[in-house]
Each structure stands twice: as C-alpha cells, then as structure tokens.
Write a structure and sequence with these properties.
Layout: H1 21-56, H2 62-66, H3 80-111, H4 116-130, H5 133-148, H6 153-177, H7 181-189, H8 194-205, H9 207-222, H10 226-231, H11 250-258, H12 263-294
Helix pairs in contact: 1-12, 3-6, 3-9, 4-6, 5-6, 6-9, 7-8, 9-12, 11-12
Length: 295
C-alpha cells in the first residue's frame, strides 16, 4: 500500500479557441479512457475490500484474538499466537532496519552529495527496493538458517529488516533534502560541528517525514509471506522466548490455512487477511496524519 506525501498542482487548461477539432476529439477520448480506467481501478480495490470484509468478518470473534491456531480438522481455535508472532517479527524487522536506514539516508543526504560512493549506494538501494522478497528470504536462509541449524524468529526478523531498509533509506534521504540549507548554515555559524548540526537541527526538522518512512516500512513488511517461509516458517503454538525454531505468524498461517481443505481453517484465513489489511490501512492513515500535521 503506497502513500503519497505531496499533491501535484492541477494541469493548466488549454486555450481551446486555437485547437483544431480533431485534437479536441482526441483529448475528450483520452479523458474518457483515463476516467474509465480510474473507476475500474477503484472498483477492483473496493471489490477486494468488500470480499475481505464479507468473508473475513464471519471469522472474527473473541476466540480469534485469545485462542491459538487449531490443529488439522479440529473445530474452534483462533489466531492469537499468529498475531503475537507477527507483531514480534515485525518489531524485530523495524529494530534491525531503522538505525541502518536512517544512518544510510543521512549519509546520502548530508555527507555523500555528488560522490561516486553515494551514487553507488543509491543504485544498490534502488535495486534492493524492487527486489523480490522471496530472494531476500532465500538469502537469509543461506546465511542464517542453514549455518544455525534451523528456522528461527531471529532469521525472520532479519529478513523483514532487509526488506524495510531501502524504504527507510529513500524516505530519510528525501526528507533531509527538503530541510532548508540556511538552517544548517545557522548551526555551523554558531560553531557546531556537522554531526551536532545533523542530529540537533536537521533530524528534528525532518522528524515527521522520517517517522512516516518508518511507518511505511512497517506497513510494507507486515504482510510479507515469502521471506518468512524460508526463515521463520510457522507452527500452531506460542513462540519460544528464545525465538528458536519455527514461529507462528499471520502471513504464513493465512497461506497454509487458505489452501487447506478444512472449512474452519479457511474461515480463519479470511479473518487473518482482514486483520492484516485493516492494520496496514491504520498504519497508512497514521502516516498521513503525521505528514499533514507536519505541514
């Protein structure tokens, strides 16, 4: 789910008095086609949301949030262990990604302006931003799961963190570039070193935008399934405090339950999908609220 942080100015109206009729017709046809496809996109979006609400709300109950996932073919049960596991994995991912992403974005915006190293980092970050998440899961499987001898919550957190890093790097760099130069010059004129100017002035000025980037990264990794299949896998129990072994999580639970032949599991899969969608929607609304407050 993407979030637009700026609004574009409306396109200027053409002077139709000097435009040939054929061009007017072409413009009207283009306007009709663009409007039709816009309504088509909105229709598909509301279709998906409507289906999630209709099919998912039937699986929501107190037991959904208090009981663990049921075994194959058994009745009842809920998604409590999967919800808690997803929160733990997402929290780990953000803890891993935030310091790396913020510091890398700060380097690109403040120290590496115009340098070849900054261009190389920006290029690699763009590739990582569009890399399939399943490749990142496979990468973490090779460097953590195989050497450590099994799946774990730590591996899942690292995989989600790698996915979140490029989002935070890009947002941090963009927000720091929006800070007016005279603010930095005023800090330097008072004798403050660059590190103090960045942490005490630039970061504070861009704080809202940087927090928005972290929230967007959080929404990005909350619904990831493929990397968790290779790293944290899943189970039907509460997670171990040491985060060793497979750890239950919503995305993989939805994937497994939706493809199972048990009606109870399929109902819980729809309920889990609705919970994830509403959580991401809530995070996006909070991010928009922060951006609007900053303006």
């Amino acid at each position: 789910m993407s979030l637009t942080t700026s609004s574009a100015a409306p396109a200027p109206r053409a002077n139709w008095g000097r435009v040939r009729p054929s061009r007017r017709t072409a413009d009207k046809a283009m306007r009709v086609i663009a409007t039709a496809f816009t309504f088509l996109a909105i229709f598909v979006l509301f279709w998906i949301l409507g289906m999630l609400i209709v099919k998912g709300i039937g699986g929501l109950s107190v037991a959904t949030f208090t009981q663990i996932t049921p075994g194959p073919g058994s009745e009842g049960g809920g998604l409590a262990n999967a919800i808690v596991g997803s929160i733990v994995l997402t929290f780990l991912g953000i803890v891993v990604a935030t310091p790396i992403g913020v510091l890398a974005g700060t380097y690109l915006a403040e120290y590496g302006k115009g340098s070849k190293l900054a261009d190389l980092i920006r290029f690699i970050n763009d590739i990582l931003l569009s890399a399939p998440s399943i490749l990142i899961g496979l990468f973490v499987y090779v460097i953590m799961v195989e050497p450590l001898g099994g799946y774990s919550g730590w591996a899942g957190g690292v995989a989600l963190g790698i996915i979140a890093i490029p989002v935070i790097v890009r947002t941090t760099e963009d927000m720091l570039r929006l800070v007016p130069g005279p603010l930095r010059e005023a800090g330097s004129a008072l004798g403050a070193p660059p590190s103090v100017v960045i942490t005490s002035i630039t970061w504070k000025a861009a704080k809202s935008g940087m927090v928005t980037g972290i929230l967007l990264a959080l929404a990005r990794i909350a619904g990831e399934t493929a990397p968790l299949i290779f790293t944290a896998l899943n189970n039907n129990f509460w997670f171990s405090p040491t985060l060793s072994g497979g750890i239950s999580n919503l995305p993989v639970t939805i994937y497994q339950f939706a493809s199972a032949p048990y009606e109870n599991w399929q109902q819980l899969a729809w309920a889990g999908s609705l919970i994830i969608t509403m959580s991401i929607l809530l995070l996006s609304l909070v991010a928009r609220r922060i951006v609007r407050g900053a303006k």
